Amino acid sequence: MTLPSSSHYTPSDNGKVLTISSLNHTVDDSYYSCAATNNAGVGNFNATFHLQINYPPTTEVIHTKSWTPTEENAVTLTCDITDGRPRSDIKKVTWKKGDITLPTSGRFTLSDNDKVLEISSLNHTVDDGHYSCAAHNEARMGDFSVKLHLLVNFKPSVSVETLGPVVEGESKTIRCHSQGARPAVTSVTWKKGQEVINVTTDSKYSGGTVETPSLTTGSVLKTDAGEYTSTGQ
């Protein structure tokens, strides 16, 4: 293809110098050749020059989809270099959570030329969020990747109210309060001391379920005295 004279392609010095402005690798990566014209005619287009344009990397944040991040554990995120020239010569990788650049100390550890980020001692209140990365090569720093939304699973916080004096023969409800969980609570377990209370088979008790977590006991006896605890899963 014969190049046109335009704002993108500017010849000078009687056509011997070609300036290409605003380089774009998608349109300007190519083989270039030239031919000169004199009174005898046009020479051959023999020698060619392969112009390869460096451009910044594009990235993607990935993590093991089969593993769910859980509070107090660690998670590893990888900044995958999906494009760019050169791709192998990455100078630096920058990580962000939302719009905040992440530190490279404390719970945040970088490895593999900053491409791998490990967050230890996960806490859903501070680590839930959108993570992105950007890589630097010889061309410049690339754009930040599409953000990966990290959600950290955490256990429910359960508390049981303290009871005052209980009159023998009366019915009594021990109230259970559960605050949040991810994923949602699917089962509730009550214990008296170390013994699990089976609310489905023991007619003395009612409640103690996900729908009704508080435990009600009918006709309290002296033998019912003890320490009651509740857990959710």
TrEMBL record:
Superkingdom of this entry's organism?
Answer: Eukaryota
InterPro entries associated with the record: Cell_adhesion_signaling, Ig-like_dom, Ig-like_dom_sf, Ig-like_fold, Ig_I-set, Ig_sub2
- The keyword Membrane is annotated on this UniProt entry: yes
Q: Where in the cell is it found?
A: Membrane
Q: What is its main location?
A: membrane
Instruction: Return the GO cellular component terms, semicolon-separated.
Output: membrane
Keyword Disulfide bond in annotation: yes
Keywords, sorted A to Z = Disulfide bond, Glycoprotein, Immunoglobulin domain, Membrane
Start and end residues of each Ig-like domain: 56-149, 156-233
Q: Which residues cross the membrane?
A: none
Membrane-topology descriptor: Single-pass type I membrane protein
UniProt protein name: Ig-like domain-containing protein
